[in-house]
Amino acid sequence: MNNISVLMTCPMLEYLEKQLESRFNLFKMWNLSSSKPDFFKNHSGSIKAVVGDTTVGADSNMIDSLPNLEIVASYSVGLDKIDLEKCKDKGIKVTNTPDVLTNDVADLGIGLALAVMRKICVCDQFVKSGNWINGDLGLASKFSGKSVGIVGLGRIGSAIAKRSEAFNCHISYHSRSEKPNTNYKYYSNIVDLAANCQILIVACALTEETRHIVNRKVIDALGPKGILINIGRGACVDEPELVSALLEGRLGGAGIDVFENEPNVPEELFAVENVVLVPHVGSDTEETSKAMADLVISNLEAHFKGEPLLTPVT
Amino acid sequence: MESIGVLMACPMNPYLEQELHKRFTLHRFWKVPDKSTFLTTHCNSIRAVVGNASAGADAQLIEALPKLEIVASFSVGLDKIDLAKCKEKGIRVTNTPDVLTEDVADLAIGLMLAVLRKLCESDRYVRSGKWKKGNYMLTTKFTGKRVGIIGLGRIGMAIAKRAEAFSCPISYHSRTEKTETKYKYYPSVVELAANCDILVVACSLTEETRHIVNRKVIDALGAKGVLINIGRGPHVDEPELVSALVERRIGGAGLDVFEHEPEVPEELFGLDNVVLLPHVGSGTVETRKAMADLVLGNLEAHFLNKPLLTPVV
Fold first, then answer.
1. Which of B117, B132, B286 is closest, CB to CB, to A142?
2. pLDDT, tens only, B252-277
3. For residue A263, is the peptide bond before it cis, meaning its omega torsion is within 30 degrees of 0?
């Protein structure tokens, strides 16, 4: 398939790049030999596949400029950077990387909750700066037994719920519709969910409906003893509202993996102790990134061989 | 009971101190200018000692308090109490089991996640502005890793239950096999270490378990293995652990306890695969209050001639 042209939108994983290079005619959009307009003029007709991720996907403009695009294979489970409507219109297939990253993202959700509640990063910094000699730190908050509210009970949300249950946490959730076959308490209104839990975890997809789903009202309902964990998308949360709530003590703490304008993070949060900030690492383990890359490759190969896609987005 | 003398071994909890002061004649041992003079003066009025993981009741102290009836420890660990001497002299001993089990187990899991996923390091990365220059490195997946537990008591079992939710296969080493569990038993710590990815110390500190994690065990755990210690510092041969970490012969460590708290080997400070906590296993508002109430409850029960709530001896 070395004559099939594939466009990779940004650096994601060296292993994936090498695999794509060995199997296809790979163009790296961040490293073109000519200017972008020239590149598109000369090559747009030959590109049959785009490999995107959570940073750069395939928006309307890109899709329009690639007349022979057949498939967008995303190195992510999130699809918010892909114009799905346009792909559907033009019969362009879309694949993502569900399941292989579910455990890692759920693990991070729990890790962030424990890190915030038990002040793990604060404590580590305290010891490593030699301060323990001078006295103990203050007490933290117990995690076990706390009520956990999950926004979005999909694969990742369910995996978070399963882990939280082992800590004797009471689980409740908000979703577009109530899920049959769960014992968890459903709230049709996210403000009610926030008012009735101590740890609110954002685990839903980013769509027009869920943009800023965690807004001022939700943050107020969660309150000064509540903790917000975001392992979904930055835009699920009204970031300026979150920042002011944390600075003013109206929210008890937060563990955040995703931001509205990555890699930019509101600097006012840097000095805030009850906040843990990580750089969108939800699925960034050696094991999972390889599994995601393999899934992208397998989907592309299946497509070009006329075989069924492994993880098509319907 | 205001006339009953209670000796508190060291500062441990303001609420506990306050309550002890209200109910008894409280002597704060750390505020005494001359300990031996103090003991000679007050030895006949002190009927209880309240200790913790830092300072308890050793043979010397017990000998100096002829009217001592009860040692109530603000901890579950008993390594700072001379239990044999207490038994000999008919001195009761109580501790604080169960109320702190969940917190300590939570912290063990928290340490595993923090070490494998480099949570503290990546938090530092963001706060230093480095994310603008490039992504953080890839870390290690936690789900599915083999967890080996030394000591399958209350805390060990609570760790196992939590780790199972992350699909971690559980194995353990204990003085005796626990046939009522389905976890895999290893008769030696070295074998356990050789067959797990994350080794957790969750046993009590006794003469037998001192340095139970030694060079051999560390070698068996290996370059991809991670050690988590939420037990007692002396469970681990600390200098051996430090050199193994510095020389990268072991994959990482999450430590809440050390041989000479609050001293921590400085060679560990710059390592990105190590998370160090200042003995905070039970350090939550909720649990410390519950522990304090249990200490008070045990003392009241004793002086009212009622059954102790959580007796050890």
1. B286
2. 999 999 999 999 999 999 999 999 99
3. yes
